[in-house]
């Protein structure tokens, strides 16, 4: 340690050269990470742009419609997350295959094929479950007027579920082979299509019927279908992908790879469900306080979701970088990739935290007319929610980059336990105690969310520190 400190403060030419040599692998890792992450960040911003477009374009219909979109999303994204676990496993599986054997196209193709098989096995049962959206939401004590709107949205968007999951498999494949730029182009096209369809089907333009919230659901389903078929065309026809022949002998099973997709993907899915359902449960808890609380919650949550896309993109890039290093058996590169991702994610979100804290009214005004007296209750609630959202930005970045780095090591069981304990034992318990026992209502729920994220961040980063120090072989 003393020698390191001496080197850092030594101004001689030899010391400067030593520092440059010491920093060179870190600079190269940062360059590789950002090269991989930049289009992924843009892609996820485009995807959240579709959701944001739904929320913003539904907003003028009133707070009941805005609340319905948020409540309906609770059920749809629970089903989506259950199906997405095996999908998420495809990228780290391919990364470790290519890290060990860069030209292994057969096993790469098998991983993609079995990922699509997993989607086929899961999507239809999940779509059937979503048919029961209305009775489930009523059983959970939601406003019947809001439920009536939400059920139509869920039924419509459920038709796009298999396409969304299938697109996820192809997206993971493209990312693992370093061709994520194609996914970005598809994602931007999807946003534009979704906005155009929203404009037509929500409000009845271009000769289409004015379907309101239902129209937003139909638009999203169509956009998901477009994303899948376009990406499938890219994966089968473009030279960068064609050499993998992803549809070759598509009906041929690889049961070992199919089992690996589920063995790794199920705990990954459970981890995501623990986190997502904490936030979705918070939405349902907000519903007991009325439509204004749900609308305010939905606005604050969407603001945080937009900024979260950057560390999420960095985290997905970290999965590939860590996976490649682990496949090659490079212990130092594994730690360097994970640490670089965690530092970049946390640093960006610290800047976002400051920005959100400085302009909550301006951000709220993007979603709802803040000068309209009928929206005064929503504005009064959303401002403190945004202050809390600013606080947990850094924790959110650390937990996702830490967890995604663990995925690159194919570590799935422990993160699932960390997520469960952090989000439900710590986060949900705090939400209930502060929201209902101490009667802080929505503000107490948001403080509980921040507490759960802080616990998850500590657990995921500590787990990566421990695991990355072990022998990779």
Describe this structure as you would to a colleague:
The protein has one domain (30-468). The protein is built from 18 helices and no strands. The protein has helices at 2-9, 13-58, 63-100, 105-130, 133-139, 144-158, 161-176, 180-203, 213-237, 239-242, 255-287, 291-327, 331-358, 360-365, 376-391, 393-408, 413-437, 441-468. Helix 2 (13-58) packs antiparallel against helix 12, helix 6 (144-158) packs parallel to helix 9 (213-237) and helix 11 packs antiparallel against helix 18 (441-468). The chain is globular and about 65 Å long.
As for the number of domains, it is 1
Shape: globular
Ends: how far apart? 28 Å
How many strand units?
0
Which descriptors would you attach to this protein?
473 residues, mainly alpha, globular
Task: Give a summary of the structure in a few sentences.
The protein is an all-alpha fold and 473 residues long.
Write the layout of secondary structure elements.
Blueprint: H1 2-9, H2 13-58, H3 63-100, H4 105-130, H5 133-139, H6 144-158, H7 161-176, H8 180-203, H9 213-237, H10 239-242, H11 255-287, H12 291-327, H13 331-358, H14 360-365, H15 376-391, H16 393-408, H17 413-437, H18 441-468
